[in-house]
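Limitations

Structures in this collection are predictions, not experimental determinations, and the ligand pose is part of the prediction. Treat each record accordingly. The example that follows, with NAP as the small molecule, is included so readers can see exactly what is and is not provided: the inputs are given verbatim, and the output is the predicted complex.
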Amino acid sequence: MAESLGIGLLGLGVVGRGVLEALQGNAQAYEVRCGRRLEVRAAAVRNVAARSGLASAGLSISDDPMAIATRDDVDVVVELMGGEEPAADCIEAALSAGKSVVTANKEVMAKRGPALLDVAERGGGELRYEASVGGGIPIIGVLQRDLQANDVSSVRAIINGTTNFMITAMSRDGMDYADALAEAQRLGYAEADPTNDVDGIDAAYKLAILASLAFHARVAPDDVYREGIRSLAARDFGHARDLGYAIRMLATARRASLGLDVRVHPTLVSTEDPMAGVEGVLNAVAVSGDLIGSVVLEGPGAGAGATSSAVVADILEIAGRLASGQPPRRPRPLDTSPQFALLADIGVRTYLRLEVPDRAGVLAELGAAFAAEGVSIASVLQVPHPERSLSADLIVTTHACSDGAVDRVLAGLKRSSSEIELGVRLRIEDGCDDL
Ligand SMILES: NC(=O)c1ccc[n+]([C@@H]2O[C@H](COP(=O)([O-])OP(=O)(O)OC[C@H]3O[C@@H](n4cnc5c(N)ncnc54)[C@H](OP(=O)(O)O)[C@@H]3O)[C@@H](O)[C@H]2O)c1
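Predicted complex:
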């Protein structure tokens, strides 16, 4: 009988328990598939008493993840604790000890992935992270392996289920931001502190990982331009729809002539765009390459089952490789100092909701401010302000111009008029290019 493979699970939360159940429930099938029996020998949690029911004769539970990461009888460490520390240190220790590691941790992979992959190479083990982006959507392997013959020009993605759920609720049910957030929290899709999701931090981690793979370049979270969804109002979705657009929290990475253009922000996309049809907690990733054209993957971006699907697949890959004696696959080297394009220099179309006094002369003032910066207005719609009787909403869209020119228009309006307030500024995806 082939030797069994010892697994150490760091974390028995939503994903950890899903992985444990899959490994225990499908043990025989997995053994046939990878040629090794997979044995979860130890697991780490913070509150051991609360998880003691999951312990068994062959599985000990402790509150010391580092001890498990370095245990002699653990061959593969599966990190499912989340957060940067102690997760990153445990991963590093396991890799330094020559073990292989599977993680679903986007924060660690976005911030420290390249360094940890180096440690894996030096230690002779492997670091796999399919579940760190898009939950069950197999996008990491697709970029690493299946699309490797392509020169990738762009990745566009909806990679945060919480914000997509909220945006869908605001768009379809007319909820305002606060109600959409409360509903997401009630259903367990948003945390009590939603900052990481609604401010785009989580999506920026994931986009940094995708962009690094797509462009073979080191893209760190701080390289990603980021705006959240807090300033969206329910009425923006109606105005966008009237203009032929849906609003999505889009993560985009593309090769622009000025450098890599990598950003996460709410974006108007055509209602014909496949991204416009991605609703609720679903995720989607579209990759464009010179040979493939465009490929879109859509599916569940979170949840115990979907995420376990990706985590267990990584474990099976490692087990199969070890059973056949093959060496680990090494990632392609990264360009460590790629050129990034500044958003201010990128050509975009813009949607603005401006709150203005409902009086003569305001349009002329606005027109002058746009003209002064050479920003050409494509459409203007004036509608009564929903709450203030003496105010109106002006919905302005521009033709393509540099994002920096719109910055200057808004700064000029702020200086010249205390009565004109910016409600929201959104980029429209078509017509986007360097100017
Ligand atoms: N949830 C999803 O659908 C999903 C999807 C894709 C990726 N992920 C990623 O998967 C990872 C796990 O997410 P999750 O939702 O399963 O998290 P979770 O439900 O909060 O579970 C975290 C687990 O880790 C344990 N833990 C945390 N810090 C620890 C420490 N310092 N020492 C020992 N144990 C510790 C917790 O112990 P206690 O049980 O004692 O609290 C818990 O068992 C994260 O990186 C997340 O981003 C999650």
